[in-house]
Amino acid sequence: MPKRALTEKRPWLLASLVAAIGYYALIMTGQPVGEIWLMLVKGAGVALLAVYALQRHSSFAARLLALVLILSALGDMLIELSLIWGGAAFFASHLAAIALYLRNQRHISTISQKVLGAALLLITPIMCWLLTRDPAVTAYGVALGAMAASAWMSRFSRYRVGLGAVLFVVSDWLIFYGIGHPDGSMIPSLLIWPLYYCGQFLIATGVIQTLRQELPDAA
Q1: Which tens digit of pLDDT belongs to each residue from 16-32?
Q2: Which cellular component, as a GO term, is one annotated location (predicted)?
Q3: CA-CA to 122 of 20 to 30 Å: which in 15, 28, 145, 188?
Q4: What is the Cα–Cα distance from 90 to 104, expressed in whole angstroms?
């Protein structure tokens, strides 16, 4: 059984990793690739994680996770055309993620865990405002912070899903830093994609791992 499960799981995760690494290599080396093709490669990284989620579990939570990832993949592609369009797709993704995490809240949390969840909820939009001074970005930051806070307080692994949500927040902060400081260092822009994709990878695998441990027959 473990061997069969690994055989089923590996192709989609491997394909996702190949697409994500391939996209990063293309943009770093400046290879001449058509804009549409580059957008498709970028979107494939997270879209294939959605396929992985659907293949690994048949529960409603897995389907909701797949929706979160598909909306994020759409945002990955649309943001290449318009920051507003891409942001709208990610905003919808955060709302779907909040619904997923609120449906799967942890019953017992320590004081420190609650404090960190509250900090993510409050500090995230504040940082968005400080970095851009843009009300629309700050409004987006409210959804981003609520997503991260609800992920941290959910019953899913904090070392995967919670950490993945925090990496997502940091990657967005780096994007907003670039908006507010267009003449700044190039180092933040080099970190955006690795942090973002690693965050999504941890979220996808962390949620599915928990679901498979609790309901293996639903796979």
Answers
A1: 999 999 999 998 887 76
A2: membrane
A3: 188
A4: 21
